[in-house]
Write a structure and sequence with these properties.
By secondary structure, this protein is α+β, with helices and mostly antiparallel strands. It has one domain. The chain has helices at about 5-10, 125-130, 140-150; strands at about 15, 25, 30-35, 45-50, 55-65, 70-75, 80, 100-105, 110, 120-125, 160. The N and C termini lie far apart (about 45 Å).
Length: about 160
């Protein structure tokens, strides 16, 4: 299990997309990309972009070690989630007001918290000050992917292919 500090450092670590520049097709139900940092080869990451009827749109970053994945950060547009009912010293202050909070189709961001199951804690996107609060169209999807890429420090250029109307 990672410490909160290490999880934050891994999120901020500059990452490149394995294989170089890639195209993200927003019509695909799931896109997966391996990310790494050449100066820190012991760390490997998985970026997943998922779109389906239940959640509408989800972006996540996982730290990968051997065959294990540890969620570091995830954004869900719609979907449901309930935060834990207990707080420990490891729960960040900005998350504590959301103890026991139940998200019902409310955009939210999951964060890694030491001592809890994978991405058990979330806060509303508006409270996190994420720049894209809703997904209403393909432009919003592109903006959300780009904002998430900045949040997790992807330095490889990538292209987003939206649907043509």
């Amino acid at each position: 299990m990672l410490s909160n500090e290490l999880a934050q450092r891994l999120i901020k670590l500059p990452k490149t997309i394995e294989g170089g520049a890639q195209t993200i097709n927003t019509l695909d139900e799931k896109s997966r990309f391996i990310l790494s940092n050449h100066n820190e080869p012991e760390f490997e990451f998985l970026l997943e972009i998922t779109s389906h009827r239940k959640i509408t749109f989800k972006i996540s970053l996982h730290h990968q070690e051997h065959n294990l994945r540890e969620g570091l950060i995830r954004i869900d547009y719609k979907g449901g989630h309930k935060n834990p009912e207990n707080i420990t010293d490891d729960v960040p202050e900005f998350v504590k007001p959301y103890m026991g909070y139940f998200f019902i189709n409310e955009p939210h961001i999951h964060i890694y918290v030491y001592g809890f199951k994978d991405l058990a804690w979330a806060v509303p996107l508006v409270a996190y000050k994420f720049p894209v609060l809703t997904i209403e169209n393909s432009d919003d999807t592109s903006k959300a992917i780009n904002a998430f890429a900045r949040e997790i420090n992807i330095i490889t250029p990538f292209y987003i292919q939206n649907s043509l109307l």
